[in-house]
Amino acid sequence: MSHDLFEAARAAMAKSYAPYSKFPVGAAIRADDGKIHVGANIENISFPQGWCAEPSAISAMIMAGGRRIEEIAVIAEKLPLCTPCGGCRQKIAEFASAETRIYLCDDQGVQKTVTMGELLPYAFETDLLR
């Protein structure tokens, strides 16, 4: 199942707008409804005030009616097995569980799978705050 997320993340990365960092990133989320939502990093001249790929994909998921991330793939053109940055980890954790699978990709496909709990072991437990 992760291959379709890899393909979607790679296609999203191709649409990245990264003229300042020259570091294209793509992300693809499978939401709780089974739909795939994608995002790419989008920079602006007020660097670093742009968007990372993962929150772009989360926004697409939320706007389409999804609420939970079942799994997510991340790919970066210049860094194989790129993990989400710290801020993105907490953003993902808001919509994921500790068991949510994060697929780390290179240009050939998924090369490593980690869980959200492994990626961010001490995330804020947002369910406790609701």
Molecular structure report:
- Helices cover 31% and strands 25% of the residues.
- It has helices at residues 2-13, 53-63, 86-94, 116-119, 126-129, and strands spanning 25-31, 36-40, 69-76, 101-106, 109-115.
- It starts with a helix and ends with a helix.
- The chain has 130 residues and is an alpha+beta fold.
- A five-stranded mixed beta sheet has the order 2-1-3-4-5.
Rg to the nearest angstrom?
14 Å
How many angstroms separate the termini? Answer: 32 Å
Proportion of residues in helical segments:
25-40%
- The helix count comes to 5
State the shape: globular
Number of DSSP strand runs: 5
Give start-end ranges of low-pLDDT stretches.
none
Round the mean pLDDT to the nearest integer and report it: 94
Question: From the helix content, strand content and strand pairing, which structural class follows?
Answer: alpha+beta
Estimated share of beta-strand residues: 25-35%
The biggest sheet, with number of strands, parallel, antiparallel or mixed sense and barrel status, is: 5 strands, mixed
Strand and helix order: HEEHEHEEHH
- Order of strands in the sheet with most strands: 2-1-3-4-5
